[in-house]
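Fold these two proteins, one after the other.
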Amino acid sequence: MRIYLPASLDQIQPAAGPLTPRRVHAVTPALRAMFPDEDDEGLEFAAQLAAADDSLALLGELPGAPRARLVVSVDVSQEDVRALVDDDEVPSAMDLLRAVDLEDIACVHVDEPGVGADVDAAITGDDAAIDRLDERDLLWYDASELGAIPR
């Protein structure tokens, strides 16, 4: 199962160690039910966007982290995640039950350089900055390119 794990750029450095268990996003039955006419690619994109939102929230808790949203794509077994049954959660939300090693990363999606001011403003609740971030595409990097991501 492909999961989309919200993270920060400093969490994918070799010295940071494994990515700890946390809320992640995936194409869940609840997400499929919410968008019954959407294909798999569109559902995966919706789950990735939800993880990007969680990455923004995470950055609010990590003031020293590089100011860019990061979504890590990882394939895990069904036993490694648990569906959330909270009606207040987005339908793609799941709990990751184990740590993820950096070598398990398939790819990452990250904001392009220069979004730091919008990230900081969005964290404080600036709706215009949130809208600007929502309009931006996240850039794709293969796992072999993690060291090449601009910070």
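Now the second one:
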Amino acid sequence: MSKAKRLLDILMFVTAKRKFTAQEIAGEFHISIRTVHRYMLDLCDMGLPIYAEQGRNGGYTVLTSRLLPPILFTEEEAVSIFFAFQSLSYYRNIPFDAEMNSVAHKLYSSLQREAKIKVDKMRSYIAFWNPKRTIDAPLLKDVLEHSIENRNLHIQYESKLGLTIKHIRPIGIYAHDGLWYLPAYDYGKQKILLYRVDRILRILSTEENEDSFMNLEEWFKSKEVKNPIRLHVQLTMEGVRQCSSVPSFDGFVVTQEDGTGYIDMIIDKGEIGFITPLFCRLGIDGRVLEPKELIDGLRVKAEEILTMYQDEN
């Protein structure tokens, strides 16, 4: 039997048993005690968390039972997973980022020489480019875990009005344009609001919940337009190109024969504040025809910019 096959068999045995002695392994696999100790070192090097206890009643303990059994990937599958992780590299913070780096390292190390050469070459010809954010969200993983565990949070939050204390029930987190967002039920406002995770400065306390609440997937499906208002925008060719990459406009950008286009859709009135900066950036490439509230908001922004750059002379 090859060493690799024997290591695999021992790995399956010890993860199922969790507590064992070298003598048990030696008897089960008909190998010497010395070989058992050597194999334990090999398994530790592979990432299996084993604790060795010395003495007459000593032995080995697998510190976690959550180790997955070996999964066989084709070379192309391993390469695709490696580059899927690479696509997230422009996010400054990712839940379980240390674990993802470990997985990527293990995948790369397990590749044959030819596959490693292929990966190294592909790095020179493919990139998942997005503007790299420099904003930290150090509580990202904590917020995600509290959401999964159905806990209420008291948080210190930095909003436009300054530091505030919020009592919320998290729904989940999602990433957009390099930032992480947390939809949560705000007990003070008595409605679901959207928070930036990087603006959560501290988690002050938590509370367990016995009753269930919607999760992120259910929230996405249940989002409804409570205050409908028409969004009608004329777009140049450049406006079509830019708006086509905005997720909230997906399927609503109509392109005409000459390359120009338009958006004609119903949105919630509460979204105006979120889309105003987008149409500010579009400038002359997007002419808003409706709603009046959005036009008024753009005029205010334009006047603020003009005032800032007025010639003092």
